[in-house]
What does this fold into?
Amino acid sequence: MSLRAAARAYPALLRAGFASAVAYRAEFLIWMFSTNMPLIMLALWAAVARSGPVGAYTQDGFAAYYLCTLLVRLLTGSWVVWELTMEIRQGVLAMRLLRPLHPLIAYSAENLAAVPLRGIVAIPVLSILLWAARSQLGHDPLLWLLLPPALFGAWLLTFLVMALIGTLALYVESAASLFEAWLGISAVLSGYLIPLDLFPQAVQRVALALPFRFLLSFPVELMLGKHPPAHALLLLGAQWVYVAAALVATNLVWRAGLRRYSAYGG
Amino acid sequence: MIEVERLRKSYFVHRRQPGLRAAIRSLVHRPREEVKAVDGVSFQVGPAERVGFLGPNGAGKTTTLKVLSGLLHPTSGHVSVAGHTPQDRAPAFLRQITLVMGQKQQLLWDLPPSETFLLNRAIYDIPRREYQETVAELTELLGLSGLLDKPTRQLSLGERMKCELAVALLHRPRVLFLDEPTIGLDVTMQATVRGFVRAYNERFGATVLLTSHYMDDVAALCPRVLVIDHGRLIYDGSLEELVRRVRPDKRVLLKLSRPVEARDLAKLGAIVSQSDAQAVLQVSQAELQAAVQRALAQLPVVDLTVEDPPLEEVMRELFERGVAEGAA
It folds into this structure.
């Protein structure tokens, strides 16, 4: 299917994805409330910061950081890796492959369609909380302008990495465990558990060069106004280079995987 | 429409004994074995033909259908469907085919079928007018009214299968691959599905390749059958010819006005079953005429019917004989 044809079909895909997300509203809410790690980390660090700032973070600083982290996490989350590995193992992927639409485009719409529903719940609650911590947020409107593409880049990178690892289920049976490993490393190096600038210099240098930062920390850094606009723009460019690389890698693994596809599950 | 030449498809599977020791050993050593699912199959199917694909479980039927629909890459050989190489999965190819698998579904589980219909309309880029016409036509042929707005998970198996067929045919494919489309359905629903497949084939001139374990499906729908066993094609021709070749004898059903001695029946042919009011004999083709005449003359016959042996029996015998003899 050409990209133009995919673009024509995309609104219908989003509509169906949104309808499915609404049908699963109870699971959806449970998932949202289970995404509470940033709040646990906030409680922990706020207690530590009571006796004085940790690095550049005061109690309010931690509050702003983890609330931004929670917001970015809710808006950029994806679940394609579990769906893909399950559909490959059960042979359901076959039904998607029969349609003249790349299955990854269909998955992307299903995942993206859930974002508004998350937003409906997440944004009002977090807006109130962020209002309380507004003194810690960035004030440069340029940085806020860069936030939507950075959030979209973070979502796309998350989705593509998940799709890449999920596609490995065409080769190995343990793709889901591989993802668990990725998730563990990512929790540390994306800034989900600890702000990256609290790490020792050497670890920071490594963390800042790896793609994990662009999954989560980078949009948070924009919201907290941690970069001058020119540098932020450079980082946005770097994020999208990673997105492009992930797109190419996923496509290559996907194509090669389909040659091996032996339609598990009959 | 479909050309298959020396198609082979093999898989590698890991062999492992049960038990903890074997599980630990498999961490370091995994013996692999090549399984030939399809082993040098060749056939052609013309436009608008309805062909039945028969074979025991694991014979290679579904694998062949998956290769033909572009889901699997052949290990070797040449395959062409509607002028395309299926494994390229070109959009123009995918728009011309459909594969319905009785045990898989494309309907969105928690949404009404009408949502999947709209989704497929967008994916296949079906013009609104054509879409409305097709939906109206399919609704009439399959009796879908009232079903399309109920969530799929609340439909019965039969209702769901009808909707599956409809959504698979919305884009009016020219080639239908049907893999056990009537599995699990009751007799009435099986007949509905059969009638629908025939009507679609006649109305749109679509080519149909069907696998089914229900011989009634094949007998009702397919003037031609392909029989595959252990990955090899062992028969290609009409169903009647297959029956004649495998089981040249006939079944003579006698309804009797009073009980008769078994030895009197045995003079006419082999006794398949006998009760006071009925007997079934197996008689060779050559002796059929004489046996019928003698039965009518010598026995208290109320009614007499001559039938082919049941298809299930014919197939069982064919597969038991094995590939070598069947191919003869």
